[in-house]
Structure formats: C-alpha cells, structure tokens
Write a structure and sequence with these properties.
The complex is a heterodimer of chains A (about 325) and B (about 675). With about 325 residues, chain A is mainly alpha-helical. Chain A has helices at about 1-35, 45-55, 65-85, 100-120, 125-155, 160-170, 175-195, 210-215, 220-245, 260-285, 295-315, and one strand at about 60. With about 675 residues, chain B is mainly α. The longest helix of chain B is centred in the middle third of the chain and has 36 residues, at about 340-375. The chains are: A mainly alpha (about 325), B mainly alpha (about 675).
C-alpha cells in the first residue's frame, strides 16, 4: 500500500509536468502581449495549438530519413523524463535517486543532440544554421550549467536534487555569496537554453538571427506538436529547477498525506506561475542580441558560476 | 566464484597471453609468405581474430576468477638476463582492452581487408602490431618493456606508411617516427633512473627499492613525456592526428582505441606502481595537462574537415579526460584517501575501456564511409544515412556515446570523473584546490564541445543531401564489417545501462592502484537499490542507467502511442520547404566548415590563429569567389616552430666548426679536457 502511494506520488509528478507545461508558455505569452498593449491569445492557447497540430497532416521532405521522424519523440522522452525527475511539489519521491542533477543536464543534452541532428537531416541552409548555432550556444551554456551544479553540489555535499532541496529547505544554509552567483548564472543559462530573448526569440520566423525555430523549420503536424510540447516541458523544467534549488520552501518533505500534498502543489503552482510572469517582463525590458555577442552573455554566466565554485573550493562557508 | 568450485587448476590461463604473442608472431611470419595473394587477408585476419579472442578470454578469466599475480622468466632477450613476464590485475585489464580491440578490428578487417591495394604492406605488420601491444603489457622488466614498446611503435609506423604513395602519409610517418623515438628515449632514461646504480632492470627489484624524492619526480616527468607523447597529451600530440588517419581504418581504430591505452598503461605502471609513493604536485601537472588536452583536442576536432582526422583529434580529447581521472587519483593517493582515489581511478579506467569501444566503432564507420565513397573530406559527403543505413545506425550510437549522452557508456565515465572532481575540496593542498575546479570547468566545456563536434560529424557525413557524385553512388558495407560495428555498439549500451557490473569487475585492478575500492555495486543488496551506481554513499550521488533507459523507452513509446492514437496519421511527402526558398543544389546546405564557424569565431582567434581569407570577385567579374580558412594547431606555432628554428639556428652556427684547421681542433679538444677536469674537481 505504501509502495502504491509512493508510486502514485511519482506518477502524479510525471502527469503534473505534462499538464502544466503548455500553461507556462500560455501565461508568458499572454503577459508579454499585455505588456506590448495587445490583448494576446487566451492563456490556454498552447493546448489548442498542440491539439490543432496533432490533427494536421505531417509533411515530410522526400529525403527525410527515419532519424527525422524519431527525433521529436526522443526529444520529448528525454525532456519528459528529466522534467519528471526534478522535484516539483515533494522531495524524496520513489525514483528521485535515479538520476542526479548532472544526469538531468545530460538528459537535456541528449534531446538537444537528437534535435540538432534532425535539423540537419533534410539538408537545408536553415536547418544547418539552427543546428550549428544551437550547438554553439550549448557548448557555452552547458559548462556554465555544470559549474552551477558544482557550486550547489559543493554546498550541499551531494548532487542529488532531493537531498539538496531537503538541506536548503530548512534554511540552515542561509544566504551565501556562492548561491547568489550560482542563481545569477543559472538564470542566464536558463534563458539561453530555452531560446528566450535576448539570446533567441521564440516568436520569430524568417529571421537570420533565429536559432531554435530555424532548426525545426521543416517540421509540421504531429512532429511539430511534439517538439513544441517538449519546448514547454523544458521551460517548466527550468522553472522547477529554479524553484527547487533556490526557493525550495513549501515542498512536501515527510508523509504524503492529502494536506501536505495540497499545500505542496499550491506553493509549487504559485512559484512557477510567478516565474512565468517574471520571464516576459524581463524579456520586454531587453533587446535581442547579435549572435556573436552570446559568448559575452554566456561567458558572464560561466565566470559567475566558476567564481562560485572557486570560492567553495577555498572555503565551504562562502 | 572461486576456482576450487569450478575445478579448474590455476595457472593455465595466466600465461595464455604469451602464447597469444607467439601465435601472433607466427601469423606475422605467415603474412610475409601469403600476403601477396589476393585471398591472403582472410586466413591472416581470421587467425588474428581467433588468437585475440583467446587472449581476451584468458584476460577476462584472470580478472573474473581473481587469480593472484604470476611471474615467468624466459631465457630470451639479453644474454644472462633473460626476460621476465608477469600478469597482474592491471596487466589483465589492459590485455582485455587490447584483445577486445584486436578481436573486433580483426573481424572488421575480414570484410574490409579485401579492398587493400597492397596487402603485403599490411598483412605481416598487423599481427606483429597486435603482438607488440600484448607484449608491452606482459613485460616485467625494463628491457623487454622497452623492446616491446619499440616493436609496437615500429610495426604501427610500418602500417601508417603502408600507403606510401601519398605525400602526406610519408610526412605523417616521419613525424610519428620522430615523436616515438623521443618518447622511447625518455622512457629509457626513466627506467635508467629507476634502476639506479644497481642495474637490475626487473620490475620486482625496481619496486623493492624506493627512489628518493628527486629521482622519483624525475622518473615521473620522464614517464609523463614518454608515455604522454604516445598517448597524445598536448603538446606532444602533433603526430597523432597525422598518423592515425593515414593507416588503414582497422589499424586507425587500433591505434586510437588501443595503442593510446597501452601508452596510458605505461604511465600507470611506472607512476602508480614502480615509483612508489607519489608527491602531491605531480597531480597538479597531470591535471593541468589533462584539462588542456581535453579542451584543445576537442576544439581542433570541431575544426577538422577530414573525418578520420576529426576522430583522431577526438582521441586526444579523450586521453585528456583519462589523464584528468588519473591526476585526481594521484592527488587522492598522495593525500592517503584510498576510497576517493579509487573513485577517480575507476573513472579513468572505465573511460579507457569505453573509449576503446566507441572510438573503434567510429573508425570502423569512417572506414566504411571511406570505402563506399573514396572520400575522407566531409565537404564531399552527405546523405549517407540512405545509402549506408546500417552503418549509419552504428555510427550514431558511437557518436552519442562519445558525446557523453545518457544512457550510453561515455556518460558514465564522465559522470564518475565529475563526482571525483566534486570531492576535490577534501584535499588539503591549496594548489590542487585551485586547479581542480578549473579542470572541472574544462571537462564540462570539452563534454559540451564533443557533442557539437559529433553533431557536425554525423550531420555532415550521414545527413543532408549528398555533396558529391561519390556520396550519391555509395553502397552499404559488407556484413562482417557491420558485425564488427554492432558488437561495440551493443557493448556501449550494455555498459551504459549496467555500469555497476563493470565497476565491480575492475575493482581488483583499482584496489591494486589506489589501495582502496568503491563499495560493491552489484552486491547482495543489488535488488534493493535497483542496480544504481552509487560511488561513495547513497546520500551523495547515484545514477541508474537501467532505470533511465527504461524510463526513456517507456515515455518514448507512450508518447508515440499517444500521438498515434490522438493525432491523424496522415503523412505527405513533398519537396523541401526551407521557408519558401529551397535551393536544389546540395552546395546550398550547411557545410562542415560553416557548421564549425560559430565555434571557430568564439574560440578560434585566440587559440588557433584562424585566418579567414575572402576573395570576392568585383561586380562584373565572372570568376568564382574564394573563401579560405586556415587553422593552425597552436602546438606547432608555440612549441615546435620555435624548437625547430632553435635547432636550425644552432646547427647553422655549429656549421663553422666543420672546417677548422687541425691546430684549432686540438686546442678545442684541450679546452674541453680542461673544462671537464674542472667540473670533476668541483664535483668532488
């Protein structure tokens, strides 16, 4: 019975991320539209978009290979598994020890690898430019992300997300210089990884500055629906990660009784909706960068997280 | 499992390795005789395959049964001294790597070797090369070690220049020979210092005497140069990307996948075993060089247009990762932390094994591509996923594994290295505390760049549209070569999913090197933690390849099922859209150099002396525009260029000494004598 309850809690998390992912896109699009003095589509529009795309015919180029057709599912699977392994409303779920934070970052890299290859499959200039830039951004963002992982892992003495959250939740760690630097770097990385302004613009088409959208330009129908869904999941994953690492308060730590779970769910929902509101506000305040300014943007994230790690190697009390 | 339980007498398989060496040498002799015939390749490679499998089985058995070390003296070699051989867990592990690589390379060559144009230049040397690598690992005295080492170098050199008509191969062979000589020279010096004045070159007596701190450090530095030059440590790597691609592909696979590992074995044998207790600052040097090697190796790899050269540079990167693990192991060992040392050394050894698997696989794939199209230049390839569908699958597995992507094996060893880095603050030395986070950053950078590099390699070669007629007319390779590719691919999966088994398997090797071991991964409680990989403690870190694989499979299938249930299955084939402006010429695709361009822009100017030269015809001119990129390996620029110039200048100045009168020569001799006497006097 206890096992069934534990498995149920894990399954709830898997379904929760699935259900909430398009909502995050919807909220941030709505807020963005309001900030630009437009009405904007309804908040649930991403659900409708995905439904619509699912019922459209998929158009494949003549020379599209099996890789092109399977890559969306691989991307979705890796993103979903990664998102379901990040603690959302509760820590120490049944499978939380399956993968630590390094493995979660690497799972996202697997999805990116698949999608970048799919972008090159048909052999177009747009697919190539997207894949090439995506890998360039990843090669700058991933080391920064891993250094963020290092810094929080050095503070917590573990790379397990649940163990980190359970340590941070008690507030005994307190405010740290290194945590601040790590959070700064994490936000930069999250912006780059999710293809948001100022690194990439999820709303553009037909611009030479675009990265992610260029890579998936040839996709249509159900494949595109899966890719869009995965993009939403990835955004939610980064929101959950930010919430879990830096504001873990309100998560279920002990028994999973109904009250605790409801409180956990409500606080989680509050945290991620707040982040979904803050994201477009930040985006509206800055302008899109030129491609070759990314190294400066991500380099500052890298430098900040490297500084955090150095400080922690010097003394654990930073 | 004990021996007694199986009723097998100990000692039978211990020296099967030496019999294998003898058999391989006999095959080499046979290669001289039958190499001229067109069918000659089949018996030679078949025999190599069988002998390698026997060697593999004996090494596996040795480790599995946990046999004790055994020594053997043979009255061959130097008169009065003979030569000694020994098998211990470390040797058995590297025999395993060498013979596994040898077996799959021989299997591959059974198919691929048919196309060899001048078989007599390959067939005798190939078994000799395998024998040399086995012999290095088995040797138990400095003389036979060095002879075997040199034998391995020379036989591989012969294979590198087997296609001697290409100008660049001759140059590659020359550079290789030069660097190998320097490496062997430093190893000779290292053993000279180790043996000291007693002159007993057997490893047992070297182990027994403890050199003082200065001599030990000298040996360490010499071994680092000697073994590092063979393994491809920056800046001693320059021969590697020239020589590895020049050989036939199965030999390239062996050189990259196995011979660099034998070099690492040499380093481990000298530094971890023979010298005795390490000083902590050694690890500083190893970590610095390893980190630099990892980053620079993969950065050059991204820039390459030649598929096999890209793979060779990626070998440099992976050697760097192994050396990072070894450096951490040295650091923990010097500070008496056996369990943490065991973690770092496990990571390094696991990466040794993993790299030998996926690099062999990738070179086999490259060989299939080269054979099918006659092109190594990626700018002329493309779309091969349709022409070589099975090779494309195997190559994809190799690319994903080498890019350290879960759930494959490359990720496991990098994950373990990261875990070893994260326990770095336990070390008391400040120097190490500063360098370890920097090395961690370099490792993270190289892992991310490796993914970019292999997206490029796979995307340009196998995806897109064919960029030349040769790529369009390509055809799938033979089934034996394919089998040789799918075996390592399957092992990449197996090791990624059940890394705990491999870690338990190499635990005795690690125990000998680190003085400690990791907790049993698949112990009695293996059902309780569901085969998770738990290097230190369950509260600290864990990774479960099996569950990750299961989750990925389940969620992928679930998604596919859901989509197919909910969505329409209507699919239409049409022309490329490309935002409404499709260009039918394949030249409009992204090319290899354009894919690398952003990374070249970011890292290139400072690190590679990249020169972009654009020659654009003026309006009205009808000639074609030209774009030329020149990427120079900075090792040539900073290290070898000045060295060559210094040698040149010195010899120019010394030239004057050649035409002196007898009077001056005599006075020179006299001056030298006086000087030497003064030195001796001062010494006393």
């Amino acid at each position: 019975m206890a096992l069934a309850l534990e498995l149920g809690a894990q399954a709830l998390q898997m379904l929760l991320v699935l259900a909430l992912a398009p909502l995050m896109l919807g909220i941030s699009r709505k807020i963005k539209a309001r900030l630009l003095r437009r009405m904007g589509p309804p908040t649930w529009q991403p659900y409708l978009d995905i439904w619509k795309l699912l019922h459209k015919e998929a158009v494949l180029a003549h020379n599209a290979s099996w890789l092109y057709r399977t890559a969306p599912y691989l991307l979705f699977a890796t993103t979903w598994v990664a998102a379901a392994l990040v603690p959302t409303y509760a820590i120490n779920l049944t499978f939380s020890w399956t993968a630590d934070l390094i493995a979660i970052v690497a799972l996202l890299a697997t999805g990116r690898f698949a999608l970048a290859l799919a972008g090159m499959d048909v052999g177009t200039a747009f697919g190539g430019i997207g894949a090439s830039r995506e890998m360039m951004i990843a090669s700058l963002a991933e080391p920064a992300m891993l250094l963020v992982v290092f810094s929080v892992a050095l503070i917590a003495g573990t790379t397990q997300l649940s163990a980190m959250a359970s340590l941070f939740i008690h507030g005994s760690v307190g405010l740290r210089v290194s945590l601040g630097l790590a959070m700064f770097a994490f936000i930069f990385v999250a912006i780059a990884e999710n293809a948001r302004i100022p690194v990439d613009n999820p709303a553009t088409h037909l611009e030479l500055t675009m990265v992610h959208e260029a890579m998936v330009l040839e996709y249509s129908g159900r494949h595109l629906a899966v890719i869009e869904f995965a993009a939403g999941l990835k955004l939610l994953l980064y929101f959950s990660l930010l919430a879990c690492l830096f504001v873990p308060f309100g998560m279920v730590t002990g028994d999973k009784n109904l009250d605790a779970v409801l409180t956990g769910l409500m606080t989680y929902l509050g945290k991620i909706i707040l982040l979904a509101v803050l994201l477009p506000i930040g985006e509206t305040c800055v302008a899109k960068m030129r491609v070759f300014r990314y190294p400066i943007f991500l380099g500052s994230a890298f430098a900040a997280s490297a500084l955090a790690v150095f400080l922690l190697f010097v003394s654990r009390s930073f | 499992m004990t021996l007694a339980a199986l009723q097998i007498p100990a000692g039978i398989p211990a020296f099967a390795g030496l019999w294998c060496v003898a058999a391989l040498l006999a095959i080499a002799a046979a290669g001289v005789l039958i190499g001229r015939w067109s069918w000659g390749y089949a018996p030679i490679y078949g025999a190599c395959l069988i002998v390698s499998l026997a060697g593999l089985a004996s090494a596996f058995w040795y480790l599995w049964a946990g046999l004790p070390p055994e020594t053997l003296s043979l009255p061959v070699g130097l008169p009065g001294v003979g030569s000694r051989f020994r098998i211990d867990p470390l040797a058995a592990f590297f025999l395993l790597v060498a013979n596994l690589g040898g077996a799959i390379a021989s299997l591959y060559a059974l198919g691929y070797g048919r196309h060899e144009k001048s078989p007599l230049r390959v067939l005798p040397f190939y078994p000799a090369y395998l024998a040399g690598m086995n012999l290095v690992v088995l040797s138990d005295d400095a003389v036979s070690f060095l002879i075997a080492w040199e034998f391995m170098s020379l036989s591989s050199w012969a294979l590198v220049v087997s296609n001697h008509r290409a100008e660049e191969n001759i140059r590659a062979g020359y550079v290789y020979l030069l660097m190998a000589s320097i490496g062997t020279l430093t190893l000779v010096l290292a053993f000279g210092v180790l043996a000291g004045v007693s002159g007993d070159y057997s490893f047992a007596s070297i182990r027994a005497q403890h050199p003082d701190a200065f001599a030990a450090s000298l040996v360490f530095l010499l071994a680092l140069i000697g073994a590092g030059s063979k393994a491809g440590l920056v800046p001693l790597h320059i021969w590697l990307p020239l020589a590895h691609p020049a050989a036939p592909s199965h030999v390239s696979a062996l050189m990259s996948g196995v011979m660099t590992k034998i070099a690492i074995y040499g380093f481990i044998r000298i530094v971890f075993d023979l010298v005795g207790a390490p000083a902590w600052w050694w690890s500083l040097i190893v970590l610095g060089l390893g980190g630099a090697t990892a980053v620079l190796g993969v950065l050059y790899a991204v820039m390459q247009q030649d598929l096999k050269r890209l793979l060779a540079y990626s070998t440099v990167e992976n050697v760097g990762i192994v050396f990072i693990g070894l450096g951490l192991g040295l650091a923990f060992r010097a500070s008496n932390m056996p369990v943490l040392a065991a973690l770092a050394i496990t990571a390094a050894l696991l990466h040794v094994f993993n790299h030998s698997l996926f690099k062999s696989l990738l070179f086999f794939g490259a060989g299939a591509v080269v054979h099918a199209t006659g092109e190594r230049n990626m700018e002329k390839l493309g779309g091969l996923i349709h022409r070589l569908p099975r090779t494309a699958v195997a190559f994809l597995v190799g690319c994903a594994a080498i890019s350290a992507l879960p759930p494959l094996n490359g990720f496991v060893s990098e994950w373990l290295t990261f875990q070893a880095i994260l326990v770095g603050p336990e070390l008391p030395q400040w120097g190490l505390r500063f360098i370890i986070p920097a090395v961690g950053a370099m490792l993270a950078l190289s892992a991310a760049l490796a993914a970019a590099c292999f997206v490029k390699a796979y995307g340009i070669v196998f995806l897109g549209r064919p960029r030349s007629g040769a790529a369009e007319a390509a055809h799938e390779t033979d089934s034996l070569s394919l089998a040789a590719m799918f075996i390592p691919a399957a092992l990449c999966f197996a090791l990624g999913i059940l890394p705990g088994a491999a870690i338990d398997f190499i635990a005795p090797v690690v125990q000998g090197l680190a003085g400690g071991r990791l907790p049993m991964q698949l112990g009695e409680a293996w059902m309780q933690n569901w085969t998770s990989l738990v290097p230190i403690g369950s509260g600290r870190s864990s990774y479960n390849g099996l569950l990750i694989f299961g989750f990925l499979l389940a969620s992928g299938l679930l998604t596919a099922l859901g989509v197919h249930r909910l969505a329409t299955r209507a699919t239409r084939r049409s022309d490329i859209w490309d935002c409404g402006y499709p260009d039918p010429t394949p030249a409009a695709q992204y090319s290899s150099s354009s894919f690398a361009m952003p990374i070249r822009r970011v890292f290139g100017a400072t690190m590679f002396h990249v020169r972009d030269a654009v020659d654009m015809p003026r309006p009205g001119e009808t000639r074609a525009g030209r774009f030329r990129v020149r990427v120079v390996d900075p090792a040539w620029h900073w290290f070898y260029g000045p060295a060559t110039r210094a040698v040149w200048r010195t010899s120019e100045t010394m030239n004057g000494l050649q035409f002196l009168s007898i009077r001056r020569y005599l006075s020179l001799v006299f001056a030298t004598l006086v000087l030497l006497l003064l030195v001796v006097a001062a010494w006393r």
